[in-house]
Amino acid sequence: MAEEKNILSVTEITRRIKGVLEMGFSEVWVQGEISNCKNHSSGHLYFTLKDAGASLSAVMWRSRVAQLLFRPNDGMKVIVRGNITVYEPRGNYQIDCLQIQPVGIGELQLAFDRLKQKLSAEGLFDEAQKKPLPEYPQKIGIVTSPTGAAIQDMLNILARRFPALEVIVAPVKVQGIGAAEEIAEAIQDLNSFSDIDVIIVGRGGGSLEDLWAFNEEIVARAIYSSRIPTVSAVGHEIDFSISDFVADLRAPTPSAAAELVVRDRNDVIDILRHFSYTIQNSVVNMLRSSKEKVQGLVGSYSFNKPLDLFRQRSQRVDEVERRLHQIVGQRLTMDRQRAQSFTKRIQSLDPELALKRGYTIVYRNQKIVPSVAQLSAKEHITVIFRDGEAESLVESVKKA
Amino acid sequence: MASSKKETSKRTFEQSLARLEKIVDSLEQGEVPLENAIELYEEGIELSKECMETLSKAELKIKKLSKDLSGKIELADFE
């Protein structure tokens, strides 16, 4: 009877072993080195965890593999959290991994480095690929959580600095499962707008895990594929994310991103003032120099040559005229002098003067008798004196 | 005058500013004939006034992107 009780089928014994093992070794942490690592086409991951003294089969189901932030490789030292399970058909026990963490270097850091290296090798970080940000964007897309402080900070800064803007917020989950996918999709969605000038992708500060979505490949690729220039603004100044490297510009914080994408309105107003001033000045200068040019031309020798010739001619005319006046004047003077001398001579001929000097004039029959030879004795004559006349009788004539 | 204003206001702020910058450059270099210079001057002053107005009057417009059930993108008011 005892024999009957002790006889178990393979299945029965295996089930009992399974029960003992699975009850006794649930949620254990095991440290070892990965070997024989196989990524099955089913997506499940099979490997052997071993150390110097023993080995342990390990499996991680596809759903959990997808959440791994690094790729397990042979030789990698890891700590595995999992449950011991028994695979009945083969009588194997194995550890069903819930989580795998690299030993030493942090899991996330490792994943970060791996992705960074991969994308860098692909050229996603090349400076030559970076698009310049528009100087004066009109429409800005923001991919972030609609409820965080980050969005409020950004909107406040944009409104203060350069309010002539339209902002399109693409609300996304920025951490947790599905966050990376939402962020990537939002970037693509914003790219369907033809008039968005720049996209800010980011979130406020948090732990490395909180910021993790921005270290996901899907986000990196969405940023890289974005036709619209993107600014990555994740966490604080000290946090670097993969999205920072891919984006066209890294902003240390979301607030800084808002300041980077728009210029301060007051600066722009200053520029505008300067422009107006320059325009005004240039035109005033141009007018002034044109005026000076005209004045210069008017004063120039060539321009004045005709006038000069005219002046020379008129000067000659003046000169001739002056000479003419001179000659005529001389002539007049001479004539006047001659006239005067004639007058004197004429005056000297005036009989009155002779009478005054005591001479007399002899008239006969009202005619002057200029010569004694015309007279004969016994003739009547009239002798004119200065103060009267005397009727006389010629006694005798005697020629000189 | 009215039509030219309409034309210029169709431009984006950046375009207006770029045009203004060009005007400033050509005027500064002084290679424009005087008649053109005065035209440019008038245009430039107009542009700068417009830009100033844009800056001093504008308010931030905020929209939220959302999708309907069929995945079509829509814009809604933010908050």
How many strands of chain A?
14
Q: Helix count of chain A?
A: 12
- Give the total of beta strands of chain B: 2
Tell the overall outline of chain B: elongated
* SS-derived structural category of chain B: alpha+beta
Give the end-to-end Cα distance of chain B, rounded to a whole number of Å.
Answer: 41 Å
Name the CATH class of the largest domain in chain A.
Answer: Alpha Beta
Walkthrough of the structure:
The complex is a heterodimer of chains A (400) and B (79). Chain A has helices at 2-6, 10-24, 62-65, 107-122, 149-161, 179-190, 217-225, 242-246, 254-261, 265-299, 301-349, 351-356; strands at 28-39, 45-50, 55-60, 77-87, 92-102, 139-144, 166-171, 198-203, 230-234, 249-251, 361-364, 367-368, 380-385, 388-393. With 400 residues, chain A is α/β, with parallel strands linked by helices. Chain A folds into three domains: 2-104, Nucleic acid-binding proteins (OB fold (Dihydrolipoamide Acetyltransferase, E2P), Beta Barrel); 126-263, Rossmann fold, CATH 3.40.50.10550; 352-393, no CATH class. Chain A has a five-stranded mixed barrel. The longest helix of chain A has 49 residues, at 301-349. Chain A is rod-shaped. The N and C termini of chain A lie far apart (234 Å). Chain B has three helices and two strands. Chain B has 79 residues and is α+β, with helices and mostly antiparallel strands. In chain B, 63% of the residues lie in helices and 15% in strands. The longest helix of chain B has 24 residues, at 34-57. Chain B has one domain. The A-B interface holds A 134-138, 141, 146, 155, 158-159, 162-171, 186, 189-190, 192, 265, 268-269, 272, 275-276, 278-280, 282-283, 285-287, 290 and B 12-14, 17, 20-21, 23-24, 27-28, 30, 34, 37-38, 40-41, 44-45, 48, 51-52, 54-56, 58-67, 73, 75, 78-79.
SSE blueprint and pairings:
The complex is a heterodimer of chains A (400) and B (79).
Chain A: H1 2-6, H2 10-24, E1 28-39, E2 45-50, E3 55-60, H3 62-65, E4 77-87, E5 92-102, H4 107-122, E6 139-144, H5 149-161, E7 166-171, H6 179-190, E8 198-203, H7 217-225, E9 230-234, H8 242-246, E10 249-251, H9 254-261, H10 265-299, H11 301-349, H12 351-356, E11 361-364, E12 367-368, E13 380-385, E14 388-393
Parallel strand pairs in A: 3-5, 6-7, 6-8, 8-9, 9-10
Antiparallel strand pairs in A: 1-2, 1-4, 2-3, 4-5, 11-12, 11-13, 13-14
Chain B: H1 2-10, H2 13-29, H3 34-57, E1 61-67, E2 73-77
Antiparallel strand pairs in B: 1-2
Helix pairs in contact in B: 2-3
